[in-house]
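Can anyone check this?
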Amino acid sequence: MVDENFEAPRDAVQNTQLVLTELLANEIKHGRYAPGDPLMCKVDMRRSTVHIEVRHIGPPFEMPAAPVHPSLEMRETGWGLALITRLADRWGVSEEAGTRRVWAEIDLSVRASTSDTR
């Protein structure tokens, strides 16, 4: 999923892999689109940020009104957004021309001083 040559702190690479997996799983499970509609993902390394994005044709969902902090120990499902909230520095949903975009960003500058690079 994330290229092994991705030069970033190890925890940023691992967090990127988990966030991308969760974004894809959420879209596959909850997305409202027809079989055969494309589901696209992209991971971009920017100057000090990793930008993760999953796109497909379909309506956006409503962002939670409050931070997602469910009591994870008591839940069997619903961990996806809580996990994304904990691992990503920012995430959101947008819609443009009928295409839904769910994205997350992980800042590298904070992690670079405390982690080994991959």
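Reply from J.R.: I decoded it. The beta strands are 39-45, 49-57, 90-96, 99-107.
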